[in-house]
From TrEMBL:
<feature type="binding site">
    <location>
        <position position="379"/>
    </location>
    <ligand>
        <name>pyridoxal 5'-phosphate</name>
    </ligand>
</feature>
<dbReference type="GO" id="GO:0009088">
    <property type="term" value="P:threonine biosynthetic process"/>
</dbReference>
<dbReference type="InterPro" id="IPR026260">
    <property type="entry name" value="Thr_Synthase_bac/arc"/>
</dbReference>
<comment type="pathway">
    <text>Amino-acid biosynthesis; L-threonine biosynthesis; L-threonine from L-aspartate: step 5/5.</text>
</comment>
<comment type="function">
    <text>Catalyzes the gamma-elimination of phosphate from L-phosphohomoserine and the beta-addition of water to produce L-threonine.</text>
</comment>
<dbReference type="InterPro" id="IPR001926">
    <property type="entry name" value="TrpB-like_PALP"/>
</dbReference>
<dbReference type="InterPro" id="IPR004450">
    <property type="entry name" value="Thr_synthase-like"/>
</dbReference>
<comment type="similarity">
    <text>Belongs to the threonine synthase family.</text>
</comment>
<keyword id="KW-0456">Lyase</keyword>
<keyword id="KW-0028">Amino-acid biosynthesis</keyword>
<feature type="binding site">
    <location>
        <position position="140"/>
    </location>
    <ligand>
        <name>pyridoxal 5'-phosphate</name>
    </ligand>
</feature>
<protein>
    <recommendedName>
        <fullName>Threonine synthase</fullName>
        <ecNumber>4.2.3.1</ecNumber>
    </recommendedName>
</protein>
<dbReference type="GO" id="GO:0006565">
    <property type="term" value="P:L-serine catabolic process"/>
</dbReference>
<dbReference type="GO" id="GO:0006567">
    <property type="term" value="P:L-threonine catabolic process"/>
</dbReference>
<dbReference type="InterPro" id="IPR036052">
    <property type="entry name" value="TrpB-like_PALP_sf"/>
</dbReference>
<dbReference type="GO" id="GO:0009097">
    <property type="term" value="P:isoleucine biosynthetic process"/>
</dbReference>
<feature type="modified residue" description="N6-(pyridoxal phosphate)lysine">
    <location>
        <position position="114"/>
    </location>
</feature>
Length: 420
C-alpha cells in the first residue's frame, strides 16, 4: 500500500480512503465503481526496471509496488503467476498473421488467470479482519478463491455460490479444496444476488471482482508479467475474452501503470471478445447505448455473464486503447479449441479460447493487419470443461486388437500409404 493514494469513483469522481472493505461509491449506488489510484511520480523515482529484474521472486508478488496490499500481510502459498509465453508461428499462419504470441494463464495453480485476483482477495480479507471470503462465480473465480484460501497458513473459509450449470471439473475442484459450495438452481445472476445478500448478512469479505476495486489490481499482473517477459516491448494488440469486464479492465490498468512510470513507450490496442449468446458489453460498445441485461446462452461458462457489473471499466479500457470488440459463435469457439491444441499443444477451455476466435474473425475482415504484433491470453485450462472439449474434438479410432484391421483403417484415413 506504499504507493496507493486513494480510491476514486469512475463516475462522479468522489474520493475515498483505500480501506480494504470499500467496494463502491456511496453516491452512485451499485453503479459507482472505484479505481485504485497510485502515486506514479513517486513510483517512477523509487522503482525501476532494473530493481524489478533483480527481484528473486518468480510469482505475481514481484510487482508488489503496483499491488495494493500491505507488505506484512501473509500471502497464499500457491505460486501464482510466472506463466509461460509462447511464440506461435504455425498458428499465426493459420490465422493469416505473421506475429502471434500466447500467454497461457491455464498454468496458474488452480488453472486460470483468476488466481491473480483471488490471491489479492484473501490478502485483503485478512487486512479487513475477516476469516471468511465469498463470491459468486461461473467456475474459475470460485476455484481460484477456494484454492488460494486453502493455501493460507491462516484460517480462511471460502463460501462459493455457483449457478447450476457449473462444469463438473470446476465443481470437483471446489469440493476438493474444502470450500462451502452453494449450488444455486438458477442462472449466474441469481447466484450473484444470493451471494451479495449473504455477504451483507454475515459480514464475509466480498471477492466479487465486479465490484471489488482491488481485484482488478490482481488481474493486471498478467499484463505486467507479459510486459517484463517481452522486455517491455509491447505488442500492437492485446486480445482477451470478456465476461463481466474485469480482466480486460485489468489489462488496460497494467498498461496505464507501466506507461505512467516509464516502463513502456507505447500502449497496445485491446480486442475484447464475447460469445454471441451472451454479449451485453459488445452491444453497448457498438451502439453507444446503456447496457442491457441478456441471456447467458453459450458454452463458454466463464464469460457467460448476462448482467456484467464491471462493464463500464471494460468499455473505458477498450475505447481508451483505440481498440474494438467482436462476438463469436459457440461453433467458432469449439473449432478454436481444437486448432489451438493441435497447433500449439495448449488446451484452453471455451472461454479461454474465445478471444482467439475473435482474433481470427478480425484478421479475416482486415480489422487487424497481417503484420501487426498480437498477444493473446488463454485465460483458463481446458481440463476444467471436459464435456465441451469432447464435443469439440474428433472421436478416437475404435478397433479390435488386430494389426491388419488397424492397417486398413490407417490407409482409409490417409494416416499411412499402402506401400508403408
Amino acid at each position: 500500500m506504499k504507493y496507493v493514494t486513494e480510491l476514486e469513483c469512475i463516475d462522479c469522481g468522489e474520493i475515498y480512503a483505500p480501506e480494504p472493505e470499500r467496494y463502491l461509491c456511496e453516491s452512485c449506488d451499485d453503479e459507482g465503481l472505484l479505481e485504485v489510484k497510485l502515486d506514479y511520480e513517486r513510483l517512477a523515482v523509487e522503482w525501476s526496471r532494473e530493481e524489478l529484474s533483480s527481484d528473486p521472486r518468480g510469482n505475481m508478488w514481484r510487482y508488489g509496488p503496483l499491488i495494493p496490499v500491505k507488505p506484512g500481510t501473509p500471502r497464499p502459498r500457491l505460486e501464482v503467476g510466472s506463466t509461460s509465453l509462447y511464440h506461435a508461428p504455425g498458428l499465426a499462419k493459420e490465422l493469416g498473421l505473421e506475429n502471434l504470441i500466447i500467454k497461457n494463464e491455464g498454468l496458474n495453480p488452480t488453472g486460470s488467470l483468476k488466481d491473480r485476483a483471488s490471491a489479492v482477495a484473501v490478502v485483503k480479507a485478512q487486512e479487513a479482519g475477516r476469516h471468511a471470503v465469498a463470491c459468486s462465480s461461473t467456475g474459475n473465480a470460485a476455484t481460484s478463491l477456494a484454492g488460494n484460501a486453502a493455501s493460507l497458513d491462516e484460517d480462511m473459509e471460502a463460501v462459493i455460490f455457483v449457478p447450476e450449470r457449473v462444469p463438473g471439473g470446476k465443481l470437483a475442484q471446489l469440493l476438493i479444496y474444502g470450500a462451502v459450495v452453494v449450488s444455486v438452481q438458477d442462472n449466474y445472476e441469481k447466484a450473484y444476488n444470493l451471494s451479495a445478500e449473504s455477504i451483507d448478512r454475515w459480514g464475509w469479505y466480498n471477492r466479487n471482482a465486479a465490484i471489488n476495486p482491488y481485484l482488478v489490481e490482481g488481474k493486471k499482473t498478467c499484463v505486467l508479467e507479459m510486459a517484463e517477459q517481452l522486455d517491455f516491448e509491447m505488442p500492437d494488440w492485446l486480445v482477451f475474452s470478456v465476461g463481466d469486464g474485469c480482466t480486460i479492465a485489468g489489462a488496460w490498468k497494467a498498461c496505464k501503470d507501466l506507461r505512467e512510470i516509464g516502463f513502456i513507450d507505447k500502449t497496445p490496442r485491446l480486442l475484447g471478445v464475447q460469445a454471441e449468446g451472451c454479449a451485453p458489453i459488445t452491444r453497448s460498445f457498438r451502439t453507444g447505448e446503456p447496457l442491457e441485461v441478456t441471456s447467458e446462452d453459450t458454452i463458454a461458462d466463464s464469460i457467460a455473464v448476462g448482467r456484467p457489473r464491471n462493464y463500464k471499466k471494460a468499455l473505458m479500457a477498450v475505447k481508451n486503447s483505440g481498440g474494438t470488440m467482436v462476438n463469436v459463435t459457440d461453433e467458432e469457439i469449439m473449432e478454436m479449441m481444437t486448432l489451438l491444441g493441435s497447433r500449439t499443444g495448449i488446451f484452453g477451455e471455451p472461454a479461454g479460447v474465445a478471444g482467439l476466435a475473435g482474433l481470427r474473425r478480425e484478421a479475416a475482415e482486415g480489422e487487424i493487419s497481417r503484420d501487426d504484433d498480437i498477444a493473446f491470453v488463454v485465460t483458463g485450462n481446458g481440463l476444467k470443461d471436459i464435456d465441451n472439449a469432447r464435443r469439440a474434438a474428433s472421436e478416437p479410432l475404435e478397433v479390435s486388437p488386430d494389426i491388419e484391421e488397424l492397417r486398413q483403417i490407417f490407409e482409409q484415413r490417409g494416416i499411412i500409404k499402402e506401400d508403408e
